[in-house]
Design the sequence.
C-alpha cells in the first residue's frame, strides 16, 4: 500500500517536473554525448576553449601555454593523441605547470603557423605572449610536428618551455 | 572453480591493460568531470569551439550563427541559460537551422562588442560573415542583452536571423 502511494507520488512528481522545465529537446537522430573541450587529449586537464582565453590564463597565472593543432580525421593526430593522453608524465606536467589548448581550426595569429598549417603540430607560448618558435620537433620539413615515437622529445621541450623567457633575460 | 579461474583471468587482464596503457593521471585534488563545449547552454547542440570554426561552419553550411557571450559567475547569465537550455523551441531551432557558439572570453572582432562587453549578450552572424547588429533585444543601454523574460523575443530574433541577408538583397 505504502509502495503504491509512493509510486503515484513519483509519477505525479515527474509530471510536475516536465511541466516546470518543459519537454527536453532530443535530436531526431537520437541523444548525443556532449563534446568535451579535451577531445581525447586528456580528460583530466583543464583545457582553455579559445586562444584568447588561453593567452589570458597564461599571462595571469604566469604559466607557459601549449597549443596542440589536430584533426579528428587525421591518423597522425590520432596516433599521437593516444601517446599524449596516456602519458602519465605529460599529463601531470601539463596539469601542474601549463595552460593547455587544443584546436581543430586555425587562429588568425600567423605566429602559430610559421611553416604551414599541418597537423598534428605543437607550439609553446611564453606568458609574455611570445610564441616559442625555437622549441621544435625533429622534422626539418615540419618543424612543430610530433610522431608517436617523440614522446621523450616532447617532454624535453616542455621542460624548455617551463624556463620562462623573462627569467632568461 | 570456473568463477575462480575467471577472476584470475580478469585480474591478469587488468594488470596487462595498465602495463599496456600506463598509469592514468589523476589530479591530486581528485578526478575531474571533463568540461563540455555546451557549458550548460544545451547538451544536445553541436557547439563550435572557436569563432573561426563557427564562421567556417556558417559559411560552408549556409546557416546563420548565434554567438552567446556569458560568464560562469554572472547571475544574469545563469538565469538566462536556464531558460535557454530548457526551451524546447529554442534548442530545436538552433539544432536544425543554426551554427552555435558560446564564449566566456571576448574575441578580437570588435563587431561583436559594438556597445560594450557585457554578459549575457547574443549576436547573430549571417553566413556572409556579417554581424547582424540590427537584430537586438529590448534594452537600449545594452542592445544585445536578454533577460529570462525575453525568451519569446529571442525566438522572434532567431526567425529574423534565419532570413539570410543575401536573400534580402
Sequence:
Amino acid at each position: 500500500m505504502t509502495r503504491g502511494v509512493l509510486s503515484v507520488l513519483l509519477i505525479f512528481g515527474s509530471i510536475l517536473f516536465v511541466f516546470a522545465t518543459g519537454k527536453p529537446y532530443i535530436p531526431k537522430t537520437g541523444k548525443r554525448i556532449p563534446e568535451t573541450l579535451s577531445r581525447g587529449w586528456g580528460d583530466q586537464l583543464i583545457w582553455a576553449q579559445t586562444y584568447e582565453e588561453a593567452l589570458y590564463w597564461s599571462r595571469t597565472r604566469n604559466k607557459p601555454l601549449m597549443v596542440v593543432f589536430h584533426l579528428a580525421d587525421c591518423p597522425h593526430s590520432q596516433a599521437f593523441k593516444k601517446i599524449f593522453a596516456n602519458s602519465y608524465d605529460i599529463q601531470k606536467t601539463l596539469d601542474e605547470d601549463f595552460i593547455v589548448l587544443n584546436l581543430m581550426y586555425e587562429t588568425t595569429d600567423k605566429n602559430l603557423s610559421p611553416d604551414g598549417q599541418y597537423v598534428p603540430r605543437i607550439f609553446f607560448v611564453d606568458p609574455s605572449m611570445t610564441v616559442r618558435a625555437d622549441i621544435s620537433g625533429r622534422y626539418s620539413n615540419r618543424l612543430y610536428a610530433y610522431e608517436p615515437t617523440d614522446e621523450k622529445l616532447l617532454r624535453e621541450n616542455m621542460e624548455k618551455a617551463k624556463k620562462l623567457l623573462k627569467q632568461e633575460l
In short: Chain B has one domain: 47-168.
